[in-house]
Amino acid sequence: TDLNKIRNFSIVAHIDHGKSTLADRLIQETGTVKDRDMKEQLLDSMDIERERGITIKANTVRIDYKADDGETYVLNLIDTPGHVDFAYEVSRSMRAVEGSLLVVDSTQGVEAQTLANVYQAIDADHDIVPVLNKIDLPASDCDRVAEQIEDVIGIDATGAIQVSAKTGQGIHETLESIVKELPAPKGDVDAPLKAMLVDSWYDAYLGVIVLVRIMDGTLKKGMKVRFMSNNTLHHVDRIGVFRPEMEMIDELGPGEIGFLTASIKQVRDTRVGDTITNERNGCEVALDGFKPAQPVVFCGLFPVDSSEFEDLREAIDKLALNDASFSFEMETSAALGFGFRCGFLGLLHLEVIRDRIEREYDIELITTAPSVIYEIHLRDGTMLELHNPADMPDMTHVEHLQEPRIKATILVPDEYLGDVLKLCQDRRGIQEDLTYAGSRALVVYDLPLNEVVFDFYDRLKSVTKGYASFDYQMTGYRQDNLVKMSILVNDEPVDALSTMVHRDRAEARGRAMVEKLKDLIPRHMFKIPIQAAIGGKVIARETLSAMRKDVTAKCYGGDASRKRKLLDKQKKGKKKMRQFGQVNIPQEAFISALKMD
Ligand code: GDP
Ligand code: MG
Question: Which positions are annotated as binding GTP (predicted)?
Answer without folding.
Answer: 16-21, 133-136
